[in-house]
Amino acid sequence: MKITLSVLKADVGSIGGHLQPSRALVHEIRNFIRSGGKDILIDAYVSTTGDDIAILCTHEKGVAGERVHRLAWDAFRSGTEVAMKQGLYGAGQDLLKDSFSGNIKGMGPAVAEMEFEERPNEPFVFFAADKTDPGAYNLPFYLGFADPMYNAGLLLSPKISQGFTFRIIDVGYTENDKIIDLSAPEHLYDIATLLRDNQKYVIESIFSRSTGGQAAAVSTTRLHNIAGKYTGKDDPVALVRVQGEFPATGEILAPFEIAPYVGGFMRGSHVGPLMPCKLNSAISFFDGPPIITGAAFCVREGKLTEPVDVFDHPFWDSVREDIAKKAQTIRRQGFSGAAMLPYSELEYGGVVEKLGELEKKFKIRA
To answer: What CATH architecture is 1-117?
Structure first.
C-alpha cells in the first residue's frame, strides 16, 4: 500500500511565555483533526514539544496534498482562536499568511512529508525540535547515515553498505529551492563541507542507494525568510524510516548523545546544546535549552501503533545531566563570541539597529 506520512507543526500560543501550549489549545487541535479529518486522513497523532504543536498523520493524498494541508491550517487557526480567548502568549505567531494558498509550506508552519510503498513492517521515528533551526539535524543525521562509528550497519549490513544520498538545500537562497544531491561515501567530505554551516545548508531528505527508497524528510522552513523579521525560531520536525535497508533505530538515536551545539536558545539568537527530552516536554532555562523529542511508531495500511518515547530511558537521564552542564558552561559566556549567533543570524532587530547607529559614529584615524 502506498501511503504518505506528513507532520505539520506550528506555535500558535503558549502559557507563561514560550513554555508550553495549554491543555485547551491542544484539545482543540486534536478534536479538530479527529472530526475534520474523517474522510481525509487514515490516522493521526497530535503532540507537543516545548511551545509547538505537531500533527503527525497518514493518508493517501500524496506529498503537499491540498486537503491535508488545509485541514492542518484550519486546525491551527482554530487553535489560535482558543489561544486568544485564553490570553496565551504568541497566539498564532507561526501563521505568517492571512489566507491558505494550496499548501502550508511557505506560510509559517514546519512541514516534513514522504510518500512510499509500505514494507511488510514499517517502523519510523518522528522527531520534533524546539528553540532551534533546521540545521540542528545536520550532524546527528550525518553521523547516523554516513559514519560507521555510529551506523554499524554500513559495515555489517549488505542492505545499507552502499550508503545513502543526501539532498541538501541552501536555505539562504529564497527565490526558489536550491538543492544538491551528494552520495556517501564518495562525496563524504563534500557533504561535511556543506553541513558544517547549519544556518545555510540543511539536509532536506535522505535516500537509500540500494533501493532508492526515501529514508528521511526534514522541514527546512526559515521563518525570517518568510516574515522578513524575527518571529520565532524555526523549530524543525523530521521523519526517519528505520530498519531493513535503513539504519537501525538505535543507530539514528546514538548521535543525539553528543548534544551538538545549535542555534536558538533565548530570542533565537544564542548557541546551546540540543537536549533529547521526553515527549510533551516544556521549555525552561533561558528559553531553552534547545530540545528534541522522538516518538517511534510502526504503521500498517496507514494505521499507527501507539508511540514509544525514544528518549524516555534511564540512559538519557544521565545524558541530560551532562547536557545541562554543557548548557551552563556556554551560557556563562553570555553574549560574547561563540556563545551568541553571528551578525547574519541575529534575527532580533535590536543589535542590528544599534550597530547601524554606532557605525555612523566611527571615524577613520589618519
So the answer is: 2-Layer Sandwich (3.30)
